[in-house]
Design the sequence.
């Protein structure tokens, strides 16, 4: 009896590849989505309206400034609701169109494309970079390489500064940095953020999407047979065409710049020299433009971010060889099998849409009922009561007023509940100078008839009034 051995597949080491930039409808759409997001990221940190930041997370004031609304840390469940709604919206998009968030709006992908463009601007296009890698790194090539990394570091530092500017005042942050007055903690944070951005977008790139991003791992659970993802139509493209001897080789095609007029001639040669096969001429352009370095013709893969670069590249090739576009396109398994595409109103999508609407409704309700003024009243536990004379009794209280509305800065304090109550302490609290600090108050009366009575502290700011009940002790009078 012979035992069949399990075949062992030796995985090749990953090789360095250079991403070719391509134009097309999906690349225009990606820029239409990503550039406004980039502008908002770098711009919102500087925007102030009436000297109030438009988007700022203040640890010192324990406030979140959110587009003209001040949210307290006690309203953080609202932010959790926003995250839940965003996650469910991401799941909805994943079930409907795959990882389009990753390809069109994910910061990792956006910054990777920025760094690739810097690389092309300093060291040339992909085919030039590939050739130069085989040459010694000297002279102009060395200067170009240094310039690339310098611009990468500058972009990474600008990114780190902007991100930190949403938690620390960015104007003071920039001034302290360039005058060398930043604290050790802030400097260390900026250095770490700059290094991470430089490594992620410049050197690691697609490995983050494949190995660090959890979305690439659970996407298989989210997808179904009706999910429209970037797909290769194997029924139309296979078998790939066979070339005659003496025609342009794939290596020659790879070494040719996409914008070179000779590229069109080589494509036509490849197409005209085929003996038999499908529409795919095995030009590998779809692989060369892929930012994660996969071959879409191998089927759905965890690393694919659905950016559509291979669609634009393949469509261009199909037009040049006189074939219809769509060999690589957004399509579901049912569509590739020849079935009619199903509508978006499917049970799974409807479930995610319902959760998104519920979460957004809860968030909207939370924003309409945010905490403007938080007040705490505590009795002094060291001394229950103090008798001043035979009739007058005093109780000690600690009060804290935390204001989250910059329009109400003066809070008046009074006390009621017993006759002839006297309040000893600040009758007006300024939340501009000493917000959220404990203040000592003493309440006295000579008219208490019971050992235990209820009194109320009344806090007034304009038309807003808040009452806090507490106990007034007299003992045995």
Sequence:
């Amino acid at each position: 009896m012979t035992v069949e051995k399990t075949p062992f597949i030796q995985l090749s080491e990953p090789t360095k590849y250079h991403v070719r930039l391509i134009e097309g409808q999906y690349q225009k759409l990606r820029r239409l989505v990503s550039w406004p997001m980039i502008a908002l990221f770098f711009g919102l940190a500087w925007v102030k309206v009436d000297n109030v930041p438009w988007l700022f997370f203040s640890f010192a004031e324990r406030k979140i400034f959110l587009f003209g609304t001040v949210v307290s840390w006690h309203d953080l469940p609202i932010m959790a609701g926003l995250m839940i709604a965003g996650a469910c919206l991401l799941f909805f998009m994943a079930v409907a169109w795959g990882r389009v968030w990753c390809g069109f709006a994910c910061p990792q992908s956006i910054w990777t494309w920025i760094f690739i463009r810097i690389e092309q601007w300093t060291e040339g296009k992909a085919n030039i970079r590939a050739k130069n890698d085989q040459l010694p790194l000297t002279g102009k090539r060395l200067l170009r390489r240094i310039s690339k990394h310098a611009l990468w570091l500058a972009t990474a530092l600008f990114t780190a500064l902007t991100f930190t500017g949403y938690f620390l005042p960015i104007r003071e942050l920039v001034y302290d940095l360039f005058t060398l007055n930043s604290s050790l903690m802030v400097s260390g944070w900026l250095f770490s953020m700059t290094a991470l951005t430089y490594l992620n977008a410049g050197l690691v790139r697609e490995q983050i999407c494949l190995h660090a991003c959890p979305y690439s791992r659970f996407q298989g659970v989210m997808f179904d047979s009706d999910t429209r993802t970037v797909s290769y139509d194997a029924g139309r493209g296979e078998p790939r065409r066979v070339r005659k001897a003496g025609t342009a080789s794939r290596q020659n095609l790879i070494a040719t710049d996409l914008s070179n007029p000779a590229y069109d001639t080589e494509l036509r040669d490849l197409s005209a020299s085929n003996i038999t096969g499908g529409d795919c001429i095995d030009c590998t352009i779809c692989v060369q433009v892929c930012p994660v370095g996969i071959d879409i013709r191998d089927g759905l893969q965890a690393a694919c971010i659905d950016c559509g670069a291979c669609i634009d590249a393949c469509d261009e090739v199909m037009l040049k060889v006189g074939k219809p576009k769509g060999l690589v396109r957004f399509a579901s398994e049912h569509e590739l099998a020849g079935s009619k595409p199903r509508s978006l109103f499917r049970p799974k999508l409807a479930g995610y849409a319902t959760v998104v609407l519920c979460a957004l409704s809860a968030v909207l309700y939370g924003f309409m009922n945010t905490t403007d003024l938080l007040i705490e009243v505590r009795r002094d536990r060291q001394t229950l009561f103090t008798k001043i004379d035979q009739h007058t009794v005093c109780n000690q209280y600690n009060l804290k007023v935390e204001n989250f509305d910059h329009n109400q800065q003066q809070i008046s304090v009074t006390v009621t509940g017993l006759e002839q109550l006297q309040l000893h302490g600040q009758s007006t609290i300024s939340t501009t100078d000493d917000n959220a600090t404990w203040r000592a108050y003493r309440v006295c009366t000579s008219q208490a008839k019971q050992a235990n009575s209820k009194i109320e502290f009344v806090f007034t700011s304009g038309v807003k009034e808040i009452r806090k009940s507490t106990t007034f002790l007299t003992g045995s009078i």
The CA atoms of residues 1 and 406 lie 85 Å apart.
